[in-house]
Amino acid sequence: MGNADITRDKLIAAATQTFWEQGYSNTSLRRIALAASVDVALISRYFGGKLGLFKATLTTAFEWPELVSPDNDPIEVVINKYANPASDAHQTSVIRMIVMNANDPQVGELVRQTLRDTLLDPLEARMGGPKASERLAMFIAVVIGASMVRQSLQLPGMATAEPDLYARQLRHLIEAALNFREDPADL
Amino acid sequence: MGNADITRDKLIAAATQTFWEQGYSNTSLRRIALAASVDVALISRYFGGKLGLFKATLTTAFEWPELVSPDNDPIEVVINKYANPASDAHQTSVIRMIVMNANDPQVGELVRQTLRDTLLDPLEARMGGPKASERLAMFIAVVIGASMVRQSLQLPGMATAEPDLYARQLRHLIEAALNFREDPADL
DNA sequence: CAGAAATGTCAATGCTTGTTGACATTATCT
DNA sequence: AGATAATGTCAACAAGCATTGACATTTCTG
């Protein structure tokens, strides 16, 4: 006890959970402080305020070294993460946090920018072939949509599916996204 | 002027826009009243309170008769709606509203239930073939994900695409979703 | 036209929010 | 040990929130 770093860590941990579940504007500092067993005033002291605390949680939110590592296939990394019940909840909460805050006038632009810098730009750089930008967008769309349907909407066709089936659904959609080619014959 | 129905309509219109853009908890009645040029107190008078006003916007939110009509192909209806710039913004805001409120403890279950009753169940009823439930979930996932990527995340690969290209992307993903079959050879 | 009902306006309520400053406690260093 | 800085605690603040009731105005009705 007595170490400010511990307090900071406890605050970030509690803030991450609450911010991601409820969104930025819908989260009160008092709730975070309560969850962290820390006085509310320390948030303003250590992070300068609510926005500072949110920024602090953002920096660790998008860290996903395996995904951007050149040794791994991003597709397999994603499927393994999202089809594994242990990590699916966490990954899905990240997505929900992005979606929920992307339109917040206070933090929306910050969230989008951080997402691009830390994840999307590296992914696009590794992505070869024609229409790389378009196919990346479709790839992200599929992952986001599946997560939303599975966890937020809880549709039976995905929410109750066992991990194996869900993994096949996800793989099917991802491969379709990456196989997109602008072919005039498609019209 | 002077007609309460007009006031009610103005309130519902303003509330729909604000609720769907910012989410339920993040919207203040004062802002709605201001946008509708109506006194705040009338909201509680006419709709019983904030929740009542939200429910009133919900009932009109999911009305989409063309989609559930047996005369039309749902796929084409969706593509036409979402690839048309005039209606895309509105449709996307509906989706964003669903996603943003699906986890709200106050209105989440209400939103999910209304969505299922008015849209998903009729769609599933019309959907034949094996794994209908799973393919419907994938279909919804694709539409939601594309909307989120295009409007909320604003990824260049989808946000800046002209309607034609976006329509092709959407169609490609939808067809992939509907073509899903659980085939052991996929493993 | 007079009375009644409907509709709109305004102020005040109690509650929650983020933030700040004063004070108490604990740790650190000479 | 004693001075000094770091850390934690508490109370108060101004602002915004949803909601309510009293009052003013308009509209309808007999």
From TrEMBL, chains A, B:
The keyword Oxidoreductase does not apply. InterPro entries: Homeodomain-like_sf (IPR009057), HTH-type_TetR-like_transc_reg (IPR050109), HTH_TetR (IPR001647), Tet_transcr_reg_TetR-rel_C_sf (IPR036271), TetR_C_16 (IPR041678). Residues 5-65 form the HTH tetR-type domain. Gene3D superfamilies: Tetracycline Repressor, domain 2. Signal peptide: none annotated. Keywords: DNA-binding, Transcription, Transcription regulation. It holds the Pfam family TetR_C_16. Residues 28-47 bind DNA. This is TetR family transcriptional regulator.
